[in-house]
Write a structure and sequence with these properties.
Oligomer: single chain
CATH superfamily of the largest domain: Chorismate lyase-like
CATH topology of the largest domain: Chorismate lyase
Largest sheet: 6 strands, antiparallel
Strand order of the largest sheet: 4-5-6-9-8-7
Structural class: alpha+beta
Order of helices and strands: HHHEEEHHHEHEEHHEHEEE
CATH architecture of the largest domain: 3-Layer(aba) Sandwich
CATH class of the largest domain: Alpha Beta
Length: about 260
């Protein structure tokens, strides 16, 4: 038998899904809800916590509880890599018209706010093994955040690593003020004579860290997908390692695998 707070949560849930309470609407105060349902305020809070955990409402400090606005869905497919490679040798004006985020979200370039930050680091043991290079090798660490202008949280958290010696032949690749770079990493590598031959992606899921949950504005209980992308050139040399943290409540991953005919 359902508990009192579960029945209250179910009624509020139905009101939200039926559109009686729309995105951004404020719910009645906890005391008002307690009067409506003839239950205690702690019972009401239990019901609201349940809806928060489901991502249907959010509590804004000092303001109350609001119906959560649906966030822009990101559809990430394995076809995106060939799409990026096809663009890598196009003229700059063509490359500048759209990017991978627009491809994944259906948004326009002017809809997005982009931030990039570079720094030089020394490869630790884990990154050295990923690149097949000695520990201490100079790497260019690149952090990216892109968000929809109408939202506060980025679509994902991206950290990409390039081997400094591989890309320093083009000084523009060492300067984060040149971001967003039309054509992305595959075009950047193309400018120093590197052609990407294959990409491996390994995906796992885990609870977010406190910092990730805050930056991605995740509802309580939402997991993150962690993607390690490794790019190899046509000579099977690792040329880029990227760690991407994707929010589980707005990311859909879709994979198509062509099969050879008998």
């Amino acid at each position: 038998m359902a508990k009192a707070y579960e029945r209250i949560a179910d009624e509020l849930r139905q009101s939200i899904r039926a559109g009686e309470l729309g995105p951004g609407d404020r719910l009645p105060a906890e005391t008002k809800l307690a009067e409506r349902y003839r239950r205690s305020v702690p019972t009401i809070r239990d019901a609201l916590r349940l809806l928060q955990a489901e991502g249907l409402i959010e509590k804004q400090h000092g303001r109350g509880n609001f119906v959560r606005r649906p966030r822009t869905l990101v559809l990430r497919t394995n076809c995106r890599h060939q799409w990026e490679k096809d663009r890598a040798r196009e003229p700059a004006d063509r490359r500048a018209q759209t990017g991978a985020t627009e491809h994944d979200t259906g948004l326009e370039l002017n809809d997005l706010v982009f931030h990039a930050a570079y720094r030089e680091i020394k490869a630790d043991k884990e990154l050295a093994e990923a690149f097949g290079l000695p520990e201490g090798t100079a790497l260019l660490e690149r952090s990216y955040r892109t968000r929809y202008r109408a939202e506060n949280a980025p679509f994902n958290l991206v950290t990409s690593y390039l081997v400094r010696d591989m890309v320093e032949g083009n000084p523009d690749l060492l300067d984060d003020s040149n971001e967003p770079w039309p054509g992305g990493t595959q075009n950047q590598l193309h400018t120093v004579g590197i052609e990407v031959g294959r990409i491996e992606e390994r995906v796992t899921a885990r609870p977010p860290t406190a910092e990730e949950a805050e930056e991605l504005e995740l509802p309580p209980g939402t997991a993150v997908l962690v993607l390690r992308k490794t790019s190899y050139d046509i000579n099977d040399r690792v040329v880029d390692v990227s760690d991407i943290t994707l929010p589980g409540d707005r990311t859909e991953m879709f994979f198509t695998t062509p099969l050879e005919r008998w």
